[in-house]
Amino acid sequence: xxxxxxxxxxxxxxxxxxxxxxxxRLTCEAVAQACLDRIASREAAVQAFAHIDxxxxxxxxxxxxxxxxxxxxxxxxxxxxxxxDTFDLPTEWGTPIHRGxxxxxxxxxxxxxxxxxxxxMGKTVTTEFANLxxxxxxxxxxLARTPGGSSSGSAAAVADxxxxxxxxxxxxxxxxxxxSFCGVFGYRPTHGEHRMHGVMEASGSLDTLGILAxxxxxxxxxxxxxxxxxxxxxxAVARPPRIxxxxxxxxxxxxxATQALVEAAARRFAAAGAAVSDVRLPDDFALLDAAHRxxxxxxFVRTFTWEIEHHxxxxxxxxxxxxxADGLSCSLERYLEMQTVATSCxxxxxxxxDDHDMxxxxxxxxxxxLGRPAFAGAPVYMMWTVLHLPAIALPVFAGPxxxxxxxxxxxxxxxxxxxxxxxxxxxxxxx
Amino acid sequence: xxxxxxxxxxxxxxxxxxxxxxxxRLTCEAVAQACLDRIASREAAVQAFAHIDxxxxxxxxxxxxxxxxxxxxxxxxxxxxxxxDTFDLPTEWGTPIHRGxxxxxxxxxxxxxxxxxxxxMGKTVTTEFANLxxxxxxxxxxLARTPGGSSSGSAAAVADxxxxxxxxxxxxxxxxxxxSFCGVFGYRPTHGEHRMHGVMEASGSLDTLGILAxxxxxxxxxxxxxxxxxxxxxxAVARPPRIxxxxxxxxxxxxxATQALVEAAARRFAAAGAAVSDVRLPDDFALLDAAHRxxxxxxFVRTFTWEIEHHxxxxxxxxxxxxxADGLSCSLERYLEMQTVATSCxxxxxxxxDDHDMxxxxxxxxxxxLGRPAFAGAPVYMMWTVLHLPAIALPVFAGPxxxxxxxxxxxxxxxxxxxxxxxxxxxxxxx
Lengths: 431, 431
Hints:
alpha/beta, 11 strands, disordered N terminus, 431 residues, Amidase signature (AS) enzymes, homodimer
């Protein structure tokens, strides 16, 4: 990437942009133009956007300047994964079936972002139905590699300084994984906290929004905006956090270089005064991978009954032979059994928080692979998603090929603010 | 109502229609025509439908006849609450803001119904945004009275033999209440079991689908169709069920005549061999009414940010001064505190099922009131909705004014099939 961008408006964080705009040091138009310039120079290579209308962006920015930009995200350009409805751009879900689809209104999360002063930059590329079949986006750190999926365009656009923040979603690892692969912060909130109105449902028991950003402060700010509450700053931790190092049953499938980096982080946290202890979850927590597989696929095929009935030929082989085949083969009895497993584990994970403020785990199995696979490697995300825990990926490592590798931190349900405080402490120990 | 309809095709249950169609004893067209005739004679009075296209209904029915009608709902006309998307009719959410809105695809539940052979009869009237402000529908048993809300048109259309089954939704009591007021079976499934894709979100933590029908067998059949699983018949109970009579903390607000009817039902069940015992929930379960109020309103105002920002003048005073005012005044701390209350109660209600197969409770505070109030009287639904339990309303009583009054039965989460079996046993004791 071009070093020069580091000083341009498009390279600022959302918090910095909003403060500068509110103080009159930057106009919405100047910020929007800087982001559009960056996109103009890089989009042919990165291909982060599914839809963008520069004239509309600039018109909106000028209107905000005229009206007096205000709000916690005053003048902040944002990207929106193309499974989330916007009244002024199509929302196509990454499939030719819904080419040109117009929702006629904003999703709740988009309306909340605009109300806070945000300026929609464009729709970012998603994999097909936010599942495995990849879109066109490439990893900005190495165009030969995948950005990860399914929030591919949102992660790539944030990493490449096209926008400071972007909306994604997560049903498996669709925010944490591309954040790790692209070297940005990724946040999956506590399941259920945000309204999903206008967001394509994939598997409702597991779906959440996701946020991609280049600063923890931006994640915290944007979460409050999406909750529709007055923003609160990230607080300083009173003491180094109690950290549970949870390798999980999938540790053996994590690449050795990534294992070593996560181990080193744990030692660094301990050296900085954190109480770091190994957490071994009960053996039956390994069932959560199967719970994820069957719950997500059972729900997915029912969600998309209309598309399966009327547009079978336009669905990728990847999806037909993967999640759809799984979902069609899953009985109600198996689905309900897996929901029971999930409920039980959600209740029993609570005991972990008696002794720990956060859990530490890998954010991905390793570096972004070559080629276009949206998903690859060990399923290090599934159990956390099924557990409904808030998670954040920190872009702290570089792997053997020089590509980013993230670290994952998790906290108790609804303890998202404490997670941000702890994550900022952890981030400062490693950078 | 006209006694003659009892022998016409429109007065058959869904199970009877599907069996007759599959056996070649009835055509889809004949059934559709019978329902259209009934609607033609009664709609001016009842006003159950928001959108209906008789020519399209007949064309679809004839096409099904030509193709050879099959499936568990072969040839069964169904109504769809107008907050649920259909590709061939508008979906307007009961508000002028979305007049003429076209979704371009079917909601998951609609696609599943059509795949099973169902024939969409039309969109049924909803209250504004499935909240309190009433639509035009009147109670078919007494046009001077409310049908209840928010699934007003679905309940009235089923009660008046316009369709055998209809889709509703429930966030508070929006299926159980109109079922009770209109004298039909109403079913609220275990929260989370059905895909909500294409269904307007109101308050996602509480929203479910709902089914209105004139037979328990139809409820069970339709539930399986909506789950996308092979239908299983309602089984006979091995022994009379163990029934917990749960008056709840709102009992004092239930009308005396209704209290007496529910008490009489409990005695009747005991006389028929059921083990009936009083269940008194812990005192803090009374907090669930407040939990419902704050969770639903906090979520509602965020869900509808776009409408509130852009169409404030087209929102009713009822909604602005009710749920919207509540939602705007609710802090994140209160919302999360109420979610904690809800989670705790959901876990602790589990102990009830050690000794009981079902709970017995009022389905409404009394008979349908005069006038148009969609909601009225004691909040006898809220706690059950927050607890995420499956519930069924049985149309077993007539009140002092001769209007229907329902009985509510509830079961453990995901025990919906056992609930149907027990409900059929209970129904047979009372009729």
